[in-house]
Design brief:
Largest sheet: 6 strands, parallel
Number of domains: 2
CATH architecture of the largest domain: 3-Layer(aba) Sandwich
Number of helices: 12
Number of strands: 9
Order of helices and strands: EHEHEHHEHHHEHHEHHHEEE
Strand content: 15-25%
Length: about 300
């Protein structure tokens, strides 16, 4: 468990919405001067129960919780995907108020990027395989925005959902890099992964789920169903056979198409060829769903 439960979280003021970096830093400075611990939950909005689980945990474990709501353009390599991404700030703020968040940081693109961010981040193989291979520049954009948030807030803990399994590995690598450079915020920071929250059907909660049609919502849960079946299958079959079983079964369902399914070392994200190759092994998948199509990700642990 990341950190001790904060005893003062019951005594919270009304949530504040912040739009500027200057005001955010002022609020953080006031919290630090009062010896308050800070939890950060970075989001792109369109919040759902998965995000809520992160916020609830941060509220339990810190004196103050800051939730960022920002659709970061630098992590999109598809302009249409960026434009289609759901934006529901009013509803998000209402939910965060009920959850007990203290501050919502909802800046404009110009506030975050007053000038182009030319920084480059490289942490192979964590950022070059899977999502990194199919979405060039995606993780560089993730590192740009997350590093900025970390520098602005200097949180004690930051919370991320394990649905984005690869993203967590990349962020850990980035924090380790900043730690080696002597960054004070990085030395303090604890990355707190949180379990995937699923719909009753088994579909991993995602902001993109709101883009699914009724028919697509009916077939999308097959992703997790097949992943679960593959765990039992793996006990009597090789890694290659297990990987092929998942791909074949999902591709056999009309409306689903696997972009990749990698079975990897859960720490390094390198492909494994044997179940004995690593102590912890994860299966990571991306599937296109429907005619549009909607890109869905998920993952499952094998050992």
């Amino acid at each position: 468990m990341c950190g001790a439960i904060a005893t003062s979280y019951m005594k919270r003021k009304k949530m504040e919405i912040i739009n500027s970096v200057k005001e955010l830093k002022a609020k953080v400075s006031a919290l630090r001067s009062d010896n308050k611990t800070i939890g950060l939950v970075p989001t792109m909005g369109a919040l759902h129960a998965g995000h809520a689980s992160l916020v609830k945990r941060s509220v339990r474990e810190n004196h103050a919780t800051i939730v960022s709501v920002f659709v970061n353009p630098t992590q999109f390599n598809d302009k249409n995907d960026l434009e289609a991404y759901p934006r529901t700030l009013f509803a998000d703020c209402n939910l965060l108020q009920r959850l007990g968040a203290d501050f919502v940081f909802a800046p404009s693109v110009e506030e975050i990027y007053p000038e182009p961010d030319t920084r480059t981040f490289s942490y192979p193989p964590t950022d070059t395989v899977m999502e990194g291979a199919f979405r060039p520049g995606h993780f560089n954009g993730v590192c740009q925005i997350v590093s900025k948030l970390f520098m602005f807030v200097e949180p004690d803990r930051a919370y991320f959902g394990e649905k984005d399994f690869q993203q967590i590995a990349v962020i850990r690598a980035m924090v380790a890099d900043y730690t080696s450079q002597g960054a004070t915020w990085a030395k303090r920071l604890e990355i707190c992964p949180c379990p995937i929250v699923r719909e009753e059907s088994g579909l991993a909660l995602s902001s993109r789920n709101t883009l699914l049609s009724i028919n697509e919502k009916a077939i999308a849960p097959n992703i997790y169903r097949v992943l679960k079946e593959s765990v039992d299958f793996s006990k009597t079959h090789t890694v290659e056979e297990t990987q092929q079983m998942v791909v074949n079964q999902l591709n056999g369902i009309e409306g689903l198409e696997v972009q990749y399914y990698n079975i990897v070392n859960a720490i390094t994200l390198e492909n494994v060829t044997s179940w004995d190759d690593a102590d912890h092994i994860q299966g990571c998948i991306t599937v296109f769903c429907g005619a549009t199509p909607i890109r869905l990700i998920d993952n499952i642990n094998y050992k």
